[in-house]
Amino acid sequence: xxxxxxxxxxxxxxxxxxxxxxxxxxxxxxxxxxxxxxxxxxxxxxxxxxxxxxxxxxxxxxxxxxxxxxxxxxxxxxxxxxxxxxxxxxxxxxxxxxxxxxxxxxxxxxxxxxxxxxxxxxxxxxxxxxxxxxxxxxxxxxxxxxxxxxxxxxxxxxxxxxxxxxxxxxxxxxxxxxxxxxxxxxxxxxxxxxxxxxx
Length: 199
Prior knowledge:
four-stranded mixed β-sheet, 4 strands, single chain
């Protein structure tokens, strides 16, 4: 039996894409069955069940749009995931992030939280790293978490940065807890907020 992959884990985007298409197919098959059954029973398409079937297609069409959006992105390469896993130690990271904004979506393969630092790597050649970092910084700031955000485009430099972060202690950040997230550490809250703004 397959287990559900959590958002932020390796392989999530590919699994999400498959599941989105399966849900779309299932949701569209129900109105088709209703339409064909009514046609067979009544001998004509001109019956109330045709209207029911047409209206019943709306949720399926909405799911097709979601599946198309999910199909635009693919899981990161396995060798990159293995390199990050080796370098990160106990450092909390999120994989396969698609941060959404009104203008553009930003694909970030991996992002790590380290005290006030949020460091990410993107293999997307068309990504504007400065705008992506600014978007993430603004979204976190809107939730009352001021972070220094850097999105890197050089894989080697990112891995070196992750190794350095994993071996050292982060700068202490004053934190008294957050009533919205009882029992969470500051890093866990930042990770949760990053997942919330990602597809």
